[in-house]
Amino acid sequence: MGKESDDAVPQEYPYFWSKGSSIALPDFLMKYKPSMVQNDGTKPWIWVEGSKQNPDTSESNAAAAISEAAALLKEVSQRVEEIKEQMSKKDVREKVQADATEKLKDISIRHNYVCGKWLIFAPADKVDLIWSKIATSLVSGALASTCAFLTKVSTSPANETPHYQHVICLYIPDVYDKEAVTDVMKVLLRNHGVNLSGVKSDLYTGVGLDSKHSSGIPSTVWKNTTLLADSEIKGLKDIYFSELNVASTSVAKPDEKKDQPSTTTKKKPVLKKKTQEDDPFASEDEADAQEAERKQKVQAKGKSGKRSQTSDMDANADESDGPKTKKKKSTR
User: Fold this and answer.
1) Which residues pair with 39 in a beta bridge?
2) How much of the chain is in helix, strand and coil states, percent to nearest 5?
3) Cα separations in angstroms, 265 against 211, 212, 261, 269
4) Cα 177 → chain centroid
5) Residues of the chain with pLDDT under 50
6) What pLDDT is stored for residue 160 in this prediction?
């Protein structure tokens, strides 16, 4: 990557992580969150280097490529403006812009300056999680198996900016290697579910070619739909979010049960002695009354056994189910 562009990694920069860093990656990501680090002009980016070596750019001539590309853009901008003034047809203007795109590709290849990056935008409330997962994946996950070798994320603006979008760049060695670029795209969609904004070359960044450039040249080398069909893009993201929902549900269920008040807890049954005639619909108070009656019957029978004589009324009372009443002893 050329030092003339915004894509150069600064030397001895505390917000840069590599395998040679003294701090572990999880600790680095926890310590320097893009939502918490404010750019005061000295820390616009947080960087993480992947497991692969940076591509060899020793033979590239970024400065010459940028100079030549800048001259081309100036020429194309003038030509586009002339076409507008002449009220020429739209297809003529688009032909000039398409030719310029091919010339920029030729400049990049001739000067061996073909590095670039996938662009990903993330809202402030989600950027920490998205960034952490991409950085981790690049070092030891699915992205580590692709050609991607470096990533960075923009820090927060010094002043509060409503609806601010952070940009994440995932670097690839050759933006014109369509197959390799597509492989990275599939991992970003399938394993991270991110919204992609196209592939931009470092040369485009170096010459300041953006969506508002006066030349009207497309600011990205690849648009999403030139690499994959909309249906395939949607399908890959659907798989990611489906698996994410399943994982979230399986984790949430135990917590939900734990947090919810117990409204269906059954009372521990109270053991009670069996009565002679248990009523399954009787309450505990009724059961106690029946138990008392049973005891009275037993006591009455014991007393009647000792008596030498009992009246017919006493015998009938012992056999009845009603409450017992003591009878007066007959006197002779």
Assistant:
1) 157
2) 45, 10, 40
3) 63, 65, 10, 12
4) 30
5) 1-4, 257, 263, 265-266, 270-287, 289, 304-332
6) 86
- Nearby residues of 120 by Cβ (< 8 Å), 6 or more positions away: 130, 134, 167, 168, 169, 170, 188, 194, 195, 196, 197
**CA 62/CA 209 separation, integer angstroms:** 15
CB count in 10 Å sphere of residue 159: 7
CA distances from 125 to 122, 130, 150, 204, 258 (A): 8, 10, 23, 29, 28
The number of angstroms, rounded, from the C-alpha of 267 to the middle of its chain's C-alpha atoms is 42
Closest Cα partner for 156 from 136, 138, 134, 131? 131
Going by C-alpha positions, the residue among 71, 60, 125 that lies closest to residue 100 is 71
Name the pairing type of β-strands 116-123 and 196-201.
antiparallel
**Residues paired with 38 in a beta bridge:** 156
